[in-house]
Specification:
Number of domains: 3
Radius of gyration: 30 Å
CATH architecture of the largest domain: Orthogonal Bundle
Structural class: alpha+beta
Strand content: 5-15%
CATH class of the largest domain: Mainly Alpha
Number of helices: 16
Distance between the termini: 76 Å
Oligomer: single chain
Largest sheet: 6 strands, mixed
CATH topology of the largest domain: Globin-like
Order of helices and strands: HHHHHHHEHEEHEEHEHHHHHH
Number of strands: 6
């Protein structure tokens, strides 16, 4: 390094090291404010500030004494901060974005000191180029270090946590133990509550809507994060329980009070509908104690099966009218499809016109053959319902007779399974 540049570098870095604590506080405050995923967690914020302090100290002294990046080690607090984010399911983007923001702020401070020093313009330029070059290489290097630690910790955390807890939960689901206190101690989840079980998943890529493709590595963390957000929205009595079922699917339980339980499923639906990037969700019904924990989970699994078969996104709830019967009849898809075709004939077509006629006939029959009640639910004119019912029976090829129950069941299967049981056009 040119002697004049070296002397100027010593002056600037001595000043920056003197301001090191101030710079670290400023960067930490800015990151805590700007990165929303970190809000509300004092322990994480404290560790963030320690990480910032360690990084600022490392890079400032590397610049001051011309220490090669090959000869420095990542700050301990920076590595631990990455581990904690992984354990809490905070997205990796929150980790890497912090380094980008922090880097920009440090360069601003360094630029201020260079301009204040009054060196010749050529010296200022040479100093700033050196600072920029070294700090960019440091950010690239430290980012690789913390991302590796984050990924390793996330994998280890999910594997260790789920391997132990999942084994115990599966034992509860398949066993006969009904002692709430024993089960609570075994799986660290409050059993003396109403339990709303859910299955959450990211549909396969060929079934996803635009903008819902989720990287494989982030899938489970984002599902757990969504479950926690739902728990906050619904107002659970205790932390939710999340287990990985596979790489893109999770099982969850929300512990609810007796007062919150009746409206929880609807609250979950409203929350999911208001978040365009939400995963697909299958929901059981809120049920009490250990047996309710098991039963609600079985309901959620049936809802998940229907949703996957029918290619349904959004929320599929087991307490929806007619769902339980449709789920039972649809367990054998070949038999269900044959039944629908036999009972409905051409009315089982996949076109939009047949779909509208089927839905009108289904609502009409559910209201006991009342055109008025059906018109109120469908928000159409009385005569429109009458016309569509007649047209639906024409498409079927025969009027309602002794097989009215079969027709209702076939229409129910069409309503829930849609294209999976319809006639291909």
């Amino acid at each position: 390094m040119d002697p004049a540049i070296s002397e100027a570098n010593t002056t600037i870095m001595t000043r920056l090291i003197a301001r090191q604590a101030e710079v670290a506080r400023s960067v930490g405050h800015r990151l805590a404010s700007d990165i929303t995923e970190l809000r509300g967690d004092p322990e994480i914020i404290e560790l963030l500030r320690a990480s910032v302090g360690g990084n600022v100290d490392t890079i400032f002294h590397a610049l001051r004494y011309d220490i090669s990046l090959d000869n420095i080690e990542a700050p301990t607090a920076a590595l631990e901060y990455a581990r904690r984010l992984a354990q809490r399911g905070v997205p990796m983007n929150a980790l890497t974005r912090a380094y980008r923001i922090g880097h920009a702020l440090v360069l601003d401070v360094a630029s201020e000191e260079i301009n204040r020093a009054g060196f010749p313009a050529a010296t200022n330029l040479a100093l700033f180029e050196r600072l920029t070059s070294v700090t960019f290489r440091y950010i690239d290097w430290i980012s690789q270090q913390v991302v590796t630690v984050y990924e390793d910790e996330r994998d280890r955390w999910l594997t260790n946590r789920n391997s132990t807890q999942a084994l115990r939960v599966r034992e509860v689901l398949s066993g006969n133990d009904s002692d709430p206190e024993a089960v609570t101690a075994a799986i660290r989840y409050p059993m003396r509550r109403q339990h709303l079980a859910v299955v959450l998943w990211w549909p396969s890529e060929d079934r996803q809507s635009v903008g819902r493709a989720i990287p494989q590595d982030d899938a489970l963390a984002k599902l757990e994060q969504f479950l926690r957000a739902v728990a906050d929205h619904v107002g659970t009595q205790g932390s939710p329980l999340f287990l990985a079922a596979d790489q893109r699917t999770g099982w969850g339980w929300l512990p609810l009070s007796g007062a919150a339980a009746p409206g929880a499923s609807q609250q979950l639906r409203l929350f999911a509908d208001s978040h365009p990037g939400a995963p697909a969700v299958a929901v059981g019904t809120p049920l009490p104690s250990v047996d309710g924990f098991r039963q609600s989970h079985r309901q959620a699994l049936r809802a998940h099966s229907v949703a996957v078969t029918a290619n349904l996104n959004g929320v599929t709830a087991a307490d929806a009218p007619g769902f339980a019967a449709a789920a039972l009849m649809g367990e054998n898809q070949d038999n269900a499809r044959e039944f629908v075709h036999t009972v409905l004939g051409p009315l089982a077509g996949a076109g939009a016109s047949d779909a509208r006629l089927r839905e009108t006939l289904r609502v009409f029959l559910r209201h006991g053959g009342s055109y008025t009640a059906a018109a109120d639910e469908l928000v159409v004119h009385f005569n429109t319902v009458k016309y569509r019912v007649g047209r639906a029976l024409e498409r079927r090829g025969r009027p309602l007779g002794d097989d009215r129950l079969d027709v209702e069941m076939a229409l129910l299967l069409c309503h829930w399974y849609e294209s999976a049981v319809l006639i291909d056009e």
